[in-house]
Amino acid sequence: MKIFKLPDLGEGLQEAEIVEWHVKAGDEIAADQPLVSVETAKAIVDIPSPYDGRVAKLYGEVGQLVHVGAPLAGFEGGAETADTGTVVGEMQVGQEVRAEAPAALAPAAHGGAGIRATPAVRALARQLKVELEMVTPSGADGVITREDVQRAARVLAEAGPAEALRGVRRAMAQNMSLAQSEVAGATVIDDAVIHAWPPGTDVTVRLIRALVAGCRAAPALNAWYESHAMARRLVPQVHVGIAVDLPDGLFVPVLRDVANRSPDDLRQGLERMRADVRARRIPPEEMRGHTITLSNFGMIGGKYASPLVVPPTVAILGAGRVHEQVLAVDGAPAVRRVLPLSLSFDHRVVTGGEAARFLKAVIDDLERAD
């Protein structure tokens, strides 16, 4: 029997969740015919059959996590061999040369460093399946007691079983851990007065245009940083990652070369991109290679934020909720429409002055009437 294993999915992805089998044991299948659909941290990917022939065995059930190199399917015929496959899908973006994002860090093992508890209490925590990091100590000098562990166990029981993070939410947790552990984050905030905008102005498209203006004023924010080499790459094109919030988690598909696209083309690209994300059929190459990120969270709610910068990018612009505010205009109070802005940046690479110049250029562009 020939064994086909989960192939390398590219982008440093090491696991996938089985979404749908397109065959069952005993079916005949042709080479390159869809064999199984799997969900990675990036998208749902169809994996084709590597062989013509009869399927002898399927090695996973729908909903199961499979690691790269683990058996997927067995095919009749020949001695038992293992086909580890090749990369599924081409991950390159044109001829662009860039620093590859470092693989997301794995969660650290819970060793209990810095936690004060006796061996008996630690044993009780293991027995009750309570992570000591989650327990609030009540003993003297911050010591965790048996009662603390038992109280935490009752709370966890009331909360119900733990739900393992899968797919996009798992990747989001890993990326946010990486951002918190590696990036020296800083945020500057300010407002753009957009009272001069004509009715029907496309907020997201205007934000993209303003972001381009910021990159021209301070190119250091449109860059990738290679932390292991302490080197940065300034990128001439502006590829914007657009944060898209869905029940499954946070997606960041990419709009390419936005500086050289018309407003209509950008709007069409946004609509197509969001439709693909909602359908979970966005190609993997459309989820990589952005040089700066835009989060228009104000469409949901909130004025200001401290968005996290995910390596290797070095900046993210957040736009809050548009609202009316009383301002001093020519010495008199007046009601004006205001767009709050939050710019987070990696202070290892970007200076405060560069961030301030970037944000000023963004605001100057947004406050134009055209």
Characterise this structure.
The structure is a single chain. This protein has 370 residues and is α+β, with helices and mostly antiparallel strands. The chain folds into three domains: 2-83, RNA polymerase II/Efflux pump adaptor protein, barrel-sandwich hybrid domain (OB fold (Dihydrolipoamide Acetyltransferase, E2P), Beta Barrel), CATH 2.40.50.100; 116-159, E3-binding domain (Dihydrolipoamide Transferase), CATH 4.10.320.10; 168-279 and 286-366, Chloramphenicol acetyltransferase-like domain (Chloramphenicol Acetyltransferase), CATH 3.30.559.10. The protein has six helices and 22 strands. Strands 12, 15, 18, 19, 20, 21 and 22 form a seven-stranded mixed sheet that branches. A five-stranded mixed sheet has the order 3-6-8-1-9, with no helix packed on it. Helix 1 packs parallel to helix 2 (146-159). It is globular. Residues 84-113 have low confidence and may be disordered.
